[in-house]
Design brief:
Structural class: alpha/beta
Largest sheet: 6 strands, mixed
CATH topology of one domain: Rossmann fold
CATH architecture of one domain: 3-Layer(aba) Sandwich
Shape: globular
Radius of gyration: 19 Å
CATH class of one domain: Alpha Beta
Strand order of the largest sheet: 6-7-8-3-9-10
Bound molecules: adenosine-5'-diphosphate, magnesium ion
Helix content: 25-40%
Distance between the termini: 57 Å
Strand content: 15-25%
Length: 268
């Protein structure tokens, strides 16, 4: 029997971003020759300072770049057998790729339940049983949401809103979840909870591309990591190895690892 290359097997898709260039408007180059892979079922972390281009990369993959006046000007984005560059968000969702935007955007005036219903909308012909199954999965992951189905999302705490934003994305039963800074602005306990949830989602078979400024959290979850610096990949490698490199320790892990506090003084 001839063997198909594993990445082309439609049931085991991986994300491949190849030499991607993205610009906003006419001139602003946000990504240059960025290549990145998220294997089927893997967790990959994308680290980088504010403005490095992390969100831009997720937008390019999820087809939402155009909503922000951005465009892919070179390179390719493939997910399994599907070309995603230049496609719209519905095409990405249908391919199994769903983004949780930064800033835990929920519809504040709508109830938890209504927010969740909005999550499978790109998928027209889903059987009610599939939708129920997706909801059950969300409520199993986030019992707090199950207790608050009728509450307006605007009344939830920040952490609960982040859970709702993730839950809404899960309603589309993604095979690849793009998470944009889920821990931002949350209390340590909630960050811990979010990390647990990412682990669970991944254990249930969903690959995750995790954008974080909290490098410690992201590297503890990821198999592989990339560091983006002003639009270019500066470093990449197995998460455990990257966590030990000087650059990552100094710039992203806040020098807490070695106890050499004096070294940190010059770092911006
Ligand atoms: N809608 C937009 N229009 C113009 N420039 C943008 C837009 N969104 C982001 N940028 C610019 O693109 C660069 C990368 O931004 P972004 O992807 O948001 O970075 P990060 O998520 O790593 O903080 C920054 O210089 C930012 O100012
Ligand atoms: Mg961002």
């Amino acid at each position: 029997m001839p063997e198909a290359p594993p990445d082309e097997e439609p049931s085991l898709p991986s994300l491949r971003v190849e030499e991607l260039d993205v610009t906003y408007g006419r001139a602003l180059s946000a990504l240059r020759s960025v290549s990145l892979t998220v294997p089927h079922g893997g967790v990959v972390a994308l680290l980088g300072a504010n403005g490095a281009g992390k969100t831009t990369l997720l937008r390019a993959v999820s087809g939402t770049l155009r909503l922000h006046r951005g465009a892919v000007t070179a390179g390719r984005i493939r997910y399994g057998g599907t070309d995603l560059d230049g496609r719209d968000p519905v095409a990405a969702v249908r391919a199994g790729v769903v983004q949780v935007p930064e800033g835990r955007r929920v519809f504040a005036g709508l109830s938890v339940d209504e927010n969740l219903r909005a999550g499978g909308l790109g998928l027209s012909r889903r059987a009610p049983a599939q939708v129920r199954e997706a909801r059950d999965r969300v409520f199993a992951l986030f019992p707090r949401l199950a207790e608050r189905v009728r509450q307006p999302a605007g009344l939830l705490s920040g952490g609960e809103q982040q859970m709702l934003a993730i839950g809404r994305a899960l309603m589309a039963s993604p095979r690849l979840l793009l998470l944009d800074e889920p821990s931002l602005g949350l209390a340590p306990q909630m960050v811990h909870r979010i990390a647990e949830v990412v682990r669970l989602i991944n254990a249930q078979g969903t690959a995750v591309l995790l954008v974080e400024q909290n490098a410690g959290m992201a590297l503890s979850l990821a198999d592989h990591a990339y560091v983006l610096e002003v639009g270019e990949i500066r470093l990449s490698g197995p998460a455990g190895e990257l966590a030990r490199t000087d650059a990552v320790r100094r710039l992203y892990l806040g020098e807490t690892t070695g106890g050499t506090a004096a070294d940190g003084q010059g770092a911006a």
